[in-house]
Amino acid sequence: MTWPADERARGRGALDRPRTPATQQARELAKHLRGERPDYAYLKAVFRALREEPGVAVPGPSRRLPDTPSEAEIRRYYETVWRARHGPDIVPIKTLLYTGVRVSELVAIRLADVDFDRCQIRINQGKGGKDRVVPFPQSFKETLALHADALRRRRATHLFESSWKKPYSDRSVRKLLARYAAQADLARPISSHRLRHFLFTWLETQGLDDALIQPSSGHASHQSLESYSRLALAEAQQGYEQVIGRFPV
Questions:
Q1: What's the pLDDT band for 140 if we cut at 50, 70, 90?
Q2: Distances (CA, A) of 135 to 3, 72, 168, 243
Q3: Is the pLDDT at 228 greater than 50, yes or no?
Q4: 219 is catalytic
Q5: What average pLDDT does range 170-191 have in this prediction?
Q6: Is the predicted pLDDT of residue 43 greater than 70, yes or no?
Q7: Given a cut of 70, is residue 32 above it in pLDDT?
Q8: Active-site pick, 75, 76, 127, 179
Q9: Where are the domains of the chain?
Q10: From CA 164, how far away is CA 173, in angstroms rounded?
Q11: Which residue among the candidates 102, 132, 158, 194 is catalytic per the annotation?
């Protein structure tokens, strides 16, 4: 469709004009709506209908592709961590790598949340206030158990605590990750977010179904953890264990 020159000019002019301040626009709308005595459902319906009006385009949020490190970067990063031979650093980093938990979730894990029989960690009140269970490999069980036993002897309550019996902070974990990324001379810093993306992308490339990854990823879903059957969680754990032996660290 070809628009006349004057129509195109008017269109450009409309785009160039500054928008009416939101508060002023709200006052104008309120004048029209007061007489309707609107409730929440009515206002929601009005704005839904507004979006469908011709000429009212509401663009959705832009979606960027996840920033996922390469397998070579992950290998190089972990080799740097391993060469340092500093146990208090290795265990939290491996926990992030194997479980894909967020930093805020990592520092909130209590010793009682770790089920060594099932090789699972319960994440309480994760992002969005949701609880879930995340697996870790059988091969990591002994290392994590030794770490937990040492903390119990110190009467700690959290899985990751400082020598002053204080849980690790988000900031301290982020600094830890950044320090090893700098030592590995990586072009981009390593964050827990990038480690999450790597783990879940890697699991998909190994053939693990999205439906089995979702319960442990904590990604948005219409279903809460409680709605997953024990069978679904068991299948997810089994699928995870079958492929995690090929994980690059």
A1: very high
A2: 59, 24, 21, 12
A3: no
A4: yes
A5: 94
A6: yes
A7: yes
A8: 127
A9: 71-244
A10: 16
A11: 102
pLDDT for residue 223: 43
pTM greater than the 0.90 cutoff: no
Question: Is 196 tagged catalytic?
Answer: yes
Q: Where are the beta strands (DSSP E) in 45-156?
A: 114-115, 120-123, 132-135
* 127 is known as an active-site residue: yes
What is the model's pLDDT at position 61? 58
d(CA 160, CA 91): 9
CATH architecture assigned to 71-244:
Orthogonal Bundle (1.10)
Distance from C-alpha of 198 to C-alpha of 73, rounded to nearest angstrom: 10
Would you say 159 and 109 are in contact if contact means Cβ atoms under 8 Å apart? yes
248 touches 72 (CB < 8 A): no
d(C-alpha 74, C-alpha 181), whole Å? 10
Query: Which of 77, 98, 196, 240 is the catalytic position?
Result: 196
> What phi and psi, each to the nearest 5 degrees, are found at residue 3?
-90, 140
Question: How deeply is 177 buried, as exposed, middle or buried, from its count of CB atoms within 10 A (0-12, 13-18, 19+)?
Answer: buried
Take residue 47 and report the two structure tokens written for it: 């704005």
Q: What is the distance between the alpha carbons of residues 212 and 232, in angstroms, rounded to a whole number?
A: 7
